[in-house]
Specification:
The protein has about 190 residues and is mostly helical. The chain contains nine helices and no strands. The termini are far apart.
Length: about 190
């Protein structure tokens, strides 16, 4: 498993630029956590990058991510990666409870990265200098990025055992490293 193969899989299954950017954002956050925790950066990066690769073809639960897991198995991806992807779906939590640090990290980063993207889109400086305080203010505005499940964000940080404010700033910083790839450059 390497990033080039992962990107080929993405190109095969994903047309939406916005969805690809979301997966790049989650990849950046999960990879940065792998560095922090001393974990396998390639494996963790792959989980973040591929977690929604099947979403355009199978957007309805439980098809996503069940159908994607079948493809990943056929292509020889490791079970640890497949399980983490399966565990990020709340509606599959009885079958695939989040048990490893990797599972919990993907879950903690997924919704938050989407919300951070929405926050960045309404700021002239985008991700640069984004603070937990400003993000938490937006979290309280139910109409802002209304599709984002706020409890997934708070529960994800708690389950991972990280302070929510630190988690917000950690993920925003990881995303800022690839702001150009996310369409979130401030210039």
């Amino acid at each position: 498993m390497n990033r080039i193969a992962n990107l080929k899989l993405l190109d095969e299954f994903v047309e939406s630029v916005a969805l690809k950017r979301h997966m790049f954002a989650v990849e950046a956050a999960v990879r940065t956590y792998a560095k922090k925790f001393g974990e396998d950066e390639e494996l963790w990066s792959g989980v973040g990058l591929l977690h929604d690769f099947d979403y355009e073809r199978w957007p309805n639960p439980p098809d996503h991510p069940i159908e994607g897991s079948k493809i990943l198995r056929e292509r020889g991806y490791p079970e640890e990666l497949i399980y983490a992807i399966l565990s990020h779906a709340d509606y599959l939590s009885d079958q695939f409870p989040r048990r490893s640090k990797l599972d919990k990290t993907l879950y903690a980063c997924d919704e938050l990265c989407g919300f951070l993207t929405a926050c960045a889109m309404v700021r002239p400086e985008r991700l640069v200098g984004m603070s937990a305080k400003s993000v938490r203010k937006k979290l309280k505005q139910v109409s802002f990025a209304a599709a984002v499940n706020r409890s997934d964000i708070t529960n994800g940080a708690a389950d991972l055992g990280v302070d929510l404010d630190e988690h917000i700033e950690f993920c925003a910083s990881a995303m800022a490293e690839i702001a150009g790839d996310l369409g979130l450059s401030s210039d």
